[in-house]
Amino acid sequence: MVAKTFSACSHPEHGHGPSVTPGKPVPPVPSRRAGGRRKVVPRHWTWEWALVLLIISGGATWLVGMAGQAKPAISPDLLVKQIEQAAQRTAPDHNIYGGALRVDRNGQIASVTVTEIPPRACVLAGWDLSRKGLLSVNGVTPLRISAGKLAEICNDDDTATLTWIPRHDS
Q1: Contact (CB, 8 A) for 159 and 99
Q2: Contact yes or no for 154/126 (Cβ under 8 A)
Q3: Is 111 inside a domain boundary?
Q4: Which ranges in 24-161 belong to alpha helices (H)?
């Protein structure tokens, strides 16, 4: 028996490699996985699904962000104007924050009470109103008004009640 020698040459005419009939194409040999199934070259669905998930998650985030957005803040300056106008003439039943607005008159003196005022608006509106008359916040009438004192009184609860009596200069 003759021992075969291995060489780098794989030409069939030398007796090495697969035998191929000239002119006939060689069909590809499918690789086999364990279990005998053909190995299928996967289409790159991963990128397509990742893109779809990214678009869906971005849309969901945008929708949640829009739903959770608070209404634009109402300026405390509008509350001050509403209270000043209420002291001059008849007033609506509700203030701009949705709470009650009540005007009590004792002769020429008007007392305007507004309820359910957010703490920040209470401080800002209270500061302006205290310069134009007598201010009571949540039933407390401070002798000396400061921003710190107003913040302390206005933040006693979730909402505040302001009572204002305009100064009448003769």
Answers
A1: yes
A2: yes
A3: yes
A4: 45-67, 76-88, 119-130, 147-154
Look at residue 18 and tell me if it is in a domain.
no
Q: Which domain holds residue 122?
A: 94-166
Looking at the DSSP bridge assignments, the partners of residue 100 are 94
Question: H/E element holding 103?
Answer: strand 101-106
CATH number at residue 144: 3.30.1690.10
Helix (H, G, I), strand (E, B) or coil at 110: strand
| Number of domains composing the chain | 1
Q: How far apart are CA 31 and CA 41, in angstroms?
A: 11
Does residue 23 lie within any of the structural domains? no
Average pLDDT along the chain, 170 residues, taken 10 residues at a time: 52 56 65 60 71 86 68 78 86 87 88 92 92 92 88 90 83
* DSSP label of 18: -
> Burial level of 36, CB count in 10 A (0-12/13-18/19+)?
exposed
Residues 146 and 142: their CA atoms lie apart, in Å, by 9
Three-state DSSP at 12 gives helix
